[in-house]
Structures are given as structure tokens and as C-alpha cells.
Predict the 3D structure of the following.
Amino acid sequence: MKHSQEIQAKFEATNVASQLIVLEGAGHGFRGKHADRAVAELVTWFEKHLTDQ
């Protein structure tokens, strides 16, 4: 978690579009409901930042 927070802080400091989402209890490598949520969040981010609007 610490590394994710450090990376997020650097992204914010350099105005890189990013979002840190913490999935409590997920551990490293997503499975089951955590994987479903991670993929959904990733798709939402891509749609927001990488598609023509």
C-alpha cells in the first residue's frame, strides 16, 4: 500500500491523471469480487481519460 500511495502522490504532483482505489482485503493480485471491481474501475478510467468525448 505504501508504494501505491507514493506513486499516487508523484502522479498528483506532476498532474498525471490517476486514481488510487483501495480494495480492502484484496492483497496482491486480485481474485473473485476484487478482480471484478478492479477491472470495472480500470474500464471506467480508460473510458474517462482515453476515449473521444
